[in-house]
Amino acid sequence: MAAHLQSDTIPATDLSGPALRAFFNLAERWNLRIVDQRRLLGDPPESTFYKWKRLQEGTLGRDTLERISYLLGIWKDLQILFPDPQQADGWVHRANQSPLFGGQSALQRMLSGNVADLYVVRQYLDAQRG
Q1: CB 60 within 8 A of CB 15
Q2: Which of 2, 12, 86, 92 is the most exposed place for a label (fewest CB within 10 A)?
Q3: Whole-angstrom Cα distance, residue 130 to residue 126?
């Protein structure tokens, strides 16, 4: 009789607090406006957003967790690509001539509201890392 293996996945509720704390730390490092923070999180209601920000806890949906995961991956890639943390954190705000960005900043691309744009920026940086 085969033993049942326990799932290696962590329930989303267990990830929500650490994900929110990481996101708000990233938002501070990137000097993101509140409106931009909400947009990157998928436009949660204002009251929900402020509750998350105040408590650094909450129950996040799959979409929000996915968004935060991409953003943390982008942050990590930038820390690897740029030895100076200020340069790494400022990159998201600078105009970029890559055809992917069309002269806009990565942040402008990410603020479209689509999870796909977070993915595209992450993929671009992963490719830059090699």
Answers
A1: yes
A2: 2
A3: 7
